[in-house]
Amino acid sequence: MSATTPVCQLIERQADACRQFNDYRGWLWVAPPSDPWLTAQAPGPLWSADLTLVRQWRAVGLTAYDSLEPEIATPPGAVLFWPKAHALGEWWLLALCRGLPAGTPLQIVGENQGGIKRVLKVLAALGLGCRKLDSARRCTLFETRVGPLALDPDALWQRFEAAGLTLASHPGVFGHGKLDDGTRLLLEHLPHELGRHGERVLDVGCGDGVIAASLAQRGAAVTALDVSAFAVEATRRALAANALQGTVVQSDVYDGLADDGRFSAIVSNPPFHQERAIDYGPAARLIAEAPERLERGGSLLLVANAFLPYPDRLEAAFGRFSILADDRRFRVYRAIRR
Q1: How many C-beta atoms lie closer than 10 Å to residue 321's C-beta?
Q2: What is the pTM of this model?
Q3: Which residues are CB-neighbours of 321 under 8 A, at least 6 positions away?
């Protein structure tokens, strides 16, 4: 088996140059992409905010840290996969410097189009030396060592006001510091009566928590789900900042719910990107399995870019649907379980 993602292909090339993967044995793998090759190598523990990846790692018997502040057993080294959200990469770097002993070898790999070369300035600003190890597949691999930094990664959390709420945001969380236009359209066209009588309402892909908090503010009994640990924490902070109640669960679509969990409404601005790649998988599951999660007469309400092929999926799952709003960029759909 060979690596399928460019960044893992560069790591594979580096491992081959050393003639064995054992040079990486026991290293900590931080925020990697989903690549069967990497998991198959059984190289060492994982640290990721993505629940899907954590489950893949654990399924083959490997240690996977999913907390934002885990107690990590000291590894011989770490590999950080630099994300496209540059500020999120800075957070991972600061968190590693706080969580690992100073001097621990650290390699940083990323795509050139994703801004990996900006890492040089980040490391220089932190007083950390760096050298280039390799480049291929339009990716670059750098090497440095963890430094004894006093900077707190928690400082990257932002508070901002939107939709009449105080929200918390973090690099890598959808929207990050502003209200997305699609979410704004959804909130403006939610049925007036939704949640006002304490009905159970589910927010899937909760992001920074603006939908969940808005529903809780109406009086709904809210449950919010997201696959990202950063989004889960952001939503918890949003509810707390507005003195609102709700249940927030890290979950891959509906996986974190009890089998018999039913709701009067499901509300979502579902993602359709995985880094730069289009991925309809989560949204497809959201729609296809929604009838099983709704009470009779319950509604699925979602907003999506107008070009996305959701009408066919809604019709297949519900038989029919309506469009509550369409501003040419986004559409708000409503489908009712009969």
Answers
A1: 20
A2: 0.91
A3: 311, 314, 315, 333, 334, 335
